[in-house]
Every structure is written in C-alpha cells, then in structure tokens.
Amino acid sequence: MKQWRIIAKEAIARASIIGKFLCLLHVTDAYVLSSNHVVGPSMLPTLNITGDVVLVEHLSHRLGKLGSGDLVLVRSPLDPKKTLTKRIVAMEGDKVTFSLDPTRSHSSRSLVVPKGHVWIQGDNLYVSRDSRHFGPLPYGLIEGKVFMRVWPPSSFGFLGE
Amino acid sequence: MGTPSVLWNITKKCFTVGVITLTVSDLFASIAPVRGASMSPTFNPKTNSLLDSLSDDRVLVEKLCLRNYKFSHGDVIVFSSPNNHKEKYIKRIVGLPGDWVGTIYDVVHIPEGHCWVEGDNSASSLDSRSFGPVPLGLVKGRVTHVLWPPHRVGSVDRKTSQNRVSNS
Predict the structure, then answer these.
(1) Among A156, B54, B145, B148, which has the minimal tally of Cβ within 10 Å of its Cβ?
(2) Any idea which residues are catalytic in this one (chain B) (predicted)?
C-alpha cells in the first residue's frame, strides 16, 4: 500500500512538470515567438512558392510597433481557420491607390484606410488575394510580425524591408 | 542568506501560476466583466451610474469554440471591435455567412467568414448596425454562463428572431 502511494506521488509530480512545460510552451507560442510554414505564390519574390519556414514574433503588434512595410501574419477575414502572410502597405489614416487588375494600369482606385484598420497586399500583385479584394483589414486580425526565415537553410536570415 | 532564495521561490511560484492561468484562459475558459447596458436584460438588467463596476455582471467565456469557429444563430460572443482592437464587445450573433439580415434601411448580405452581431438592447448598443459585418477571426470566445451576481447565476440561452434573417 505504502509503495503504491509513493508511485502515485511520483506520477503526479511528473505529470505536473509536463503540464507546466506545456503551459509554458503555449504561452511562448502565443505571446512571444512561433514558427510558421508559408506556402503559396502570393509573396513572391520575398518568400518562395514551395514553402518557407518563418519565425513570427507576437510582441510588436501588441505594443503597436507595426508600420508599413512590415511582413505580418494575419487571420483571414474570409476564413477564420486560415492565416495569411502579407505585407502592410498602409496604416490607418493613410491614403492608398490600388488597381484590382495590375495588368491594366488605368483601372486604379484610391481610398483612405479607416480607423483601426490596415491595408495589406502580397508582394506578387498578380496572384495575391488581399485588401484589394476584401478591403481594409481590422487590426485585431493581425497575429504577429514575420521577421526571420529559418528554412531552407540557404536563405536563412532576417527578412528586411 | 535566506531572503534571496525565498524571494526567488515566490517569483517562481507567481510565474508558474501566471503561465498556467494564461494558458487556461486562452484555451479553455475565462471570466470577463460586462460593461454597459447594451446586452440588457440578458446582462446588467438595471444600470445605476453609481457603483457601476461593482454591480457589473461577470460571465464565463468558453474558448473551445475557437478551434473550429462553428457558431449558431443566437450565440452570445466576445469579439474585439473592428475599429479598435483593444476594445472587446459582447453581443449576440444574428446572422452567419450567407444570410440576409434586415435592418431599418435595407437588407444586408453577410459575406463569407463574417457574422452580424447585435446587442439585446437595441436602443443603446453599438453593433453591426453601425460597423457592419464582423470577421469571425475577431471572435475571442462564447459566453455560456452568468457567474455574478449570485441571484442570476445560470446559463445564457440562445435567442433567435427568425423573421429578420433569411438564408438563401
């Protein structure tokens, strides 16, 4: 009986260590740093079509340190289960000029980004589905800032402006 | 020599508790206060300007719904405002993607991945009638129970008004 009690105690101690570790992992992943696999042609030539692994930090959008030119990970407004990687083109109050179809340059429109929103676009204007289709994006949908590429190893490094 | 290690132990305990609380409130459930009268009579049925923060309702917000973003008409949700991400609103879902919702002026089609939210007290509520459909990605949780005040503890019902929404 006594030795069972010792074993149970040990098991509870181990489980609590694992539990704490998983909690710490979640907090790190959600509030500090996480990795993300980006696939698709919309960010060519910055990110490859075959899929890069990038590091995303979750601090600067909470501190309000994002500016235009930053690569961001956002939750898609059309499907909340998906995330997109795009570049911020304009912040709230800025004026943007865009054309839905970049092959025809004369069909451009311009508007002012409303309060609490950002304007995001892919680097590859021809295939990207972005603010030109669904309009300005609420700031609350931004999940983090993409700042570094870790895979493939040949293009390891920080992602600049 | 005892003091630094005691301090270190306390710091470690606080950190652990904080991390666990944050994880539980992110993944499973959290408690949130309801401010204002926009959801009266479901929450804050009588508002008096004095003692406001004390008489505010406290509600239980479950986060499991965020794993697949499945909601039904009449769910009460917490979401961050589309115009100011720091503000959180509590409203009821009236329309889901694909629905047509009637407002005073016209009929609005809810686009994919969005929902139409309104407060129960339509006279004093800032909701989709002023800022339009809300992306489901801004939803932070679903309100299931009232926890405070004690005499109104209980679950929150789903309420729907069928005549305003039509599914095409």
Answers:
(1) B54
(2) 38, 91
**pTM for the model:** 0.86
Indicate left, alpha or beta for A73 from its phi (over 0: left) and psi (-120 to 50: alpha).
beta
CA proximity to A137, closest of A87, A102, A99: A87
**B110 pLDDT higher than 60:** yes
**In angstroms, what separates the C-alpha of B129 from chain A's closest C-alpha?**
17
Cβ separation of B83 and A24 shorter than 8 Å? no
Q: Which of A23, A134, A139 sits opposite B19 (nearest CB)?
A: A23
Residue A59 shares a structural domain with residue A94: yes
ipTM of the complex: 0.84
Question: Tens of pLDDT along A54-69?
Answer: 999 999 999 988 988 8
Residues of A in contact with B19 (CB under 8 A): 20, 23-24, 27
Query: Mean pLDDT for chain A?
Result: 89
Q: Which domain holds residue A7?
A: 1-31
Q: What is the sign, positive or negative, of the torsion defined by CA atoms of A112, A73, B86, B147?
A: positive
Known catalytic membership, residue B91: yes
CA distance B83 to A118: 10
pLDDT band at A105 (very low <50, low <70, confident <90, very high): low
Residues A93, A16 share a domain: no
Task: Indicate whether A10 and A45 sit together in one domain.
Answer: no
